[in-house]
Amino acid sequence: MGKVKYTSQDYPSHPFLLPLASLFQQLSTNPETGLDPIATQKYKDSYGPNELSDKSSVSWHAVLIKQISNAMILVLVLAMALSYGVTDYIEGGVITAVIILNVTIGFYQEFQAEKKMDSLRSLSSPSAQVLRDGIVSSIPSKEVVPGDIVVVKTGDTIPADIRLLEAMALECDEKILTGEAVPVAKETKFETPAGGNELTVGVGDRLNMAYSSSTVTKGRGKGVVVFTGMHTEIGKIAASMQGTQRKANRSLSRKEGGNMQPVKGLGLRIWDSIGKFLGLTVGTPLQRKLSKLAYLLFGCAILLAIIVFGVNRFDVTNEVAIYAISTGE
Q1: What spatial distance separates the first Cα and last Cα of the chain, rounded to whole Å?
Q2: Number of helical H runs and strand E runs in the chain
Q3: What are the φ and ψ backbone dihedral angles of 74, each rounded to 5 degrees?
């Protein structure tokens, strides 16, 4: 069975900037009665369950294979084979140690990152108080959909990203998102600074929003759900940890970039795959620079080896091979 593709949760601008009337209209919801059964089912089918992706199930062998099957390790394996081939066991042993150390450290770091996804999932609220068809009831959090009117109180975990409609002495602990140790006081009459937008107003400064997996430390409130699942702020963190967020301009749809978009998007996706294999487009900026330097040095070594072989008219003896390897190093 193929993977179900759900509708993206998009708005003209971020919900913390939109007038409430516009938000209610787009979500087809009513702040007094909530969603009706028809709209609820429609959004369930369109947006899917309100939960983090299950791609994070930890498979140690998959992580290990990923660490081994990258170009840099393959280059080192080739160098190791050449060293052993010319009976230079000391150099071969050193390269072997480097390979083992590299794979071990990389495996440990990635395996730990994968396991953190389980921790993020455990922070989700198991249930939510939702107003639907005029009745407040408790439902599993994974059934919450955009447009739901959610009621929260002290001790609750926010089930999804919500735009606040009511906030009575409401404070939320958002350190999981912002790192701030002090709970944030929420307000519904939040005024965005002049010229403010999603890029200039940080997550912690959007006082009319409450975020999934944050906890209510004081007061009570009510809000309309605007993002669920992987579209929430905590979901974005999960996606970045998984490396599943697609970069811009990678779409294959003509609707998003014109008639040439499929060709452009496919080309960029191919480049991303090659870059990922070579280690040139993944990892930290320092790791990417080191990868580029390593390939540059490897290219120089190959060039010098070819020159040595050429001088000897490609009559490659053990002595010539050893000299070529030594020159390349």
Answers
A1: 52
A2: 11, 7
A3: -65, -35
